[in-house]
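TICKET #2291
ISSUE: user wants both folds in one file
ATTACHMENT 1:
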Amino acid sequence: MEIIRKGPYIMESKKAYLFVTCLVDNFFPQVAESAVCVLRRLGIEVEFVEGQTCCGQPAFNSGFWQDARTVAKRFLSVFDREKDGFIVCPSGSCASMVRIFYRELFEEGDKEYGSAVNISKRVYEFSEYIVNVLKETDVGAFYKGRVAYHGSCHLIRELGIREEPIRLIRSVRGIDFVEMKNYDVCCGFGGTFSVKFPELSAAIVEDKIQSIVESGADTLVSTDMGCLMHIGGIISRRNLPIRVMHIAELLASR
């Protein structure tokens, strides 16, 4: 079995724990199923840890840090029991919450701090895990379509993941990949931002929709279902001939 060293930790690359996220679990279960399909195709033993819930990001972003700590403690208690594998998340947003902001929720001296540091080093966004840990770009996918990519804010600006999803998309057989103007500009979702500032959110997504239409793409792919839900809502209401897909769904296509 291949062993990967990351900092002081030694992990088996053939095993991963799936953190599904709230949106995927409640509204888009096919994304989790696709992620499992792709990882198994790459020889990864995937486990779903029972008892996992939200990472605490909605409360954290809304300023309710004590509530966020309560949820984060639950997350830590569930995932810290399993110390021998990576935690793979089909969301740059949720992955960044655990990796980056848990260290703001818990300070040195808190009994949860050590667990937060340990888990922050084990959490990987889905595309990042495939490209940077497994060292794969061609996962044997096939998709016939003209595909554009939207880079989510948290993925790019907090995790620094920019090229990994694009490399995976370009490796899909049969695909016609088109570079969309301002692909890395916010779509206007921002979780509770779209609820608190609906007019501003709507104006931002209008620019994104225009970029998608101008690209001529018939499929929009991203790494975060929050973005795709937001963009897809406008696409659906306007009956635009554009399909939205999580990158895991695209890579699962044969």
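ATTACHMENT 2:
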Amino acid sequence: MTDRICITGVGVISPVGIGKDEFLLSLKNGQPGITEIKAFDTHFFRSKKAGMVQNYHPKDFIPAGKIRRIDRASQFAIAASKLALADARFPVTQENSSRVGVVLGSGFCGLSSSEAFHKSQVLKDFLDLNPMLFPNTVPNAASSHVSIELGIRGVNCTLVQSFCTAEAAILFASDQIRNGRADVILTGGVDELSEFLFRGFSDLRLLATDQGHGERSCPYDRMRNGLVLGEGSGVLVIETEEHARSRGAKVLGYILGYSLVGGSSKNDGSENIGRSLRLTLRGKEGMEIDTISGAGNSSKILDALEAQGIKKAFPSQYSRIPVSSIKSMTGEAIASGGMRMVANVLSMGYGFIPPTINYLFPDPSCDLRYVTHQKLDQEVRTVLHMGISPGECYSSILMGREWNR
């Protein structure tokens, strides 16, 4: 059992719910979390919507005196980590803290702090410079704040791997557990949506616009025309099955296989997707896949590539495997894989596949068996999770409700 990596707790701060129970209810009901942006002025942008975290109160998770010193992304990570540890019923103590780690994926976290800090420098000539902003400008601020706030003294690492960022963190964390460098690791992803980030994606013309059917995240739909950005944090508690059993923990699922591969933009992206899936399933080719947690994000290119890659990996099965993307509800973020992995755990635990909402018009380039409009109730023993960043990296993680080699 020493090499069996299991998940014993989950925590989530998302646009569709704070905590596991709210998140679960929204996934079951296909509740959209994408709304008009109120946090900053979108007057000069063609896009107006995002998956913003709502009804989040930092004082519920962080002492009031510390809140001002901790950036929004780090607050999300601390909250999700505390919820995950509570779900795992694992207290961090002085005795075990050096064997507990934090490995998070974080894309552009720190941008808001950087923007505010440099505005003070440039616009106010240092007269109103807030020095507390500076420590939060680095991408690893979230994982560091989690360690400090929770008293964790073990492995601490932040990874960035484009839109496979949370997946890369979970893979690295699993390797750390397997190599005996920690007993328990908090891993997943965190993102904060800022005006600076929104403008970057907007200027690259990557965001969805209203072309007669509303500005929406509609993965796999023929009328999709771009991303809708989101934010939040999803954190897993992982450990070996042996360690989990020794402390009487409930196992929520297992990580049965994973891969992360690169690929030049000159190569066929679908072949790289197929290669990632085959590597993840090596030695388990006969295993039945109950559902695929799709990376579809309403991008014309990515959604079609995903369908092609799945067909190459499952040439005789692809039409039977249900595929779903919760990004239709939460939006897209660099490390959204953390929230998606939490959704996968809940899918296995509660026997349902979340819907891909906003799906109206079938697309011949996306011709898989998509779960749309409402959840599909069925037993979910295995989930194949996908992460895709076209022309850069491709990842997949095989999850199982039970250990099955």
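RESOLUTION: both attachments delivered.
EXTRA DETAIL ON ATTACHMENT 2: The radius of gyration is 20 Å.
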